[in-house]
Fold this protein.
Amino acid sequence: KSPVPREKSLDSTLSLIKEGFNYIPSRREQLGSDIFETRLVGKKAVCMAGEESAAIFYDENKFKRKGAIPKPVMKSLLGEGGVHEQDDEAHRQRKRMHLSMMTPERLEDMRRIAIKHLDKKVCQWEKEERVNLFEEMVEIFTRAGCEWAGVPLKEKEVKQRSREVLDMIDSFGGSPARFRQGAKARSKQEKWLTGIIKEIRAGKFVPPSYTPACIIAHHREPNGKRLDPQVAAVDLSNTFRPLVATAYFMVFGAVAMHEYPQVHQKLKEDTDGYSKMFAQEVRRFYPFAPAMAAKVKQDFLWNDYKFKKNTLVILDLFGTNRHPDSWEQPNQFIPERFKNWKESPFSFVPQGGGNHYMGHRCAGEWMTVMVMTAFFHYLTNYITFDVPDQDLSYDMSRMPTLPKSGFEMTNIRKLKEPS
Ligand code: HEM
């Protein structure tokens, strides 16, 4: 008898789409197991959660990425040929390229650029009656991401490009219509970015040598060849599109500030690195990336269960961040839990797990935490605002999800200039 329970269903793809963030956690509870078999898109799949499961999921000898992520997600959210779907040496080479952009100096550049764009917006917000934080964050991060990446963004393009990035991100757990919209947005962005890569290669546009645009345009694969222009466009998009996803966490953080006044007060005082602990707890507690997919590389045995070559395996990221074996009171919002947190690469996985350098863990995690920390500090210490009545509830069956109102603010006043 298999030590792993099986979900009794002919195919669970529709349940997954319908139940969203709740799908894997509720099956784990029903079946009394952190790992279970099911059928997704007509094939056997294994779903799992928790620190131990994450540790095997991120073992490169056991799992590969090629062909694991469903086509609609590749065509809308991630793009084809980029770092996400590479394995082994090809992956390591591409990952080195991404991490070479994340030096402390470049992270500091991003902090400065992002705060500059936020501060500029705040001067406009002061004149407005009502501001929608989500919409504003999407635009701020698009502007900041493009500037940091060395991607020229004309003022008249800002609305269109930020809309496209948002459509790509918003598509990932969606209906066919949302996937189509995401794929349409992606093809427009890839066309735009392919043009930029070609101009750089032809010497018609020369971005600074430390920017992603320049690094990716001139990057060479292990075979000595430059990246195909479209693949270069996909990886260039991977250097600023995901920053825009931080807009979701910013809105959830604003909700937390509003719903937990004592937390808001501590953020204002911001001693002992509180704003960073707050940013970490926002990433742990609120739903954004639900799960990751990989395929078994070679047959292997784990806890008496046989993983067969090419089986699709899904790791529940959201459920792992709230797993009771790793987190006390996992369903409570407690930033202080990160005070003396013994870092584990497998229990806290809002942006993937394992090793940043060798594995698939998010290349932009340091940047995300840094920008969130700086923005939460700014929102609590540099401005004041009111939160009018609005619907802040969010739907856990939608992926990605967001408080319904997007977080509206009124009476915004700037208190001081950022240093
Ligand atoms: C990979 C989430 C921000 C660049 C990933 C993965 C997740 C993720 C779940 C996949 C991990 C895996 O394959 O196992 C997020 C979230 C973000 C964010 C939730 C913020 C809200 C960023 C930023 C950047 C970035 C700001 C770059 C500026 C990347 C890259 C990869 C990646 C290049 C591919 C890494 C690889 O396959 O080796 N991210 N990310 N991400 N992320 Fe992020």
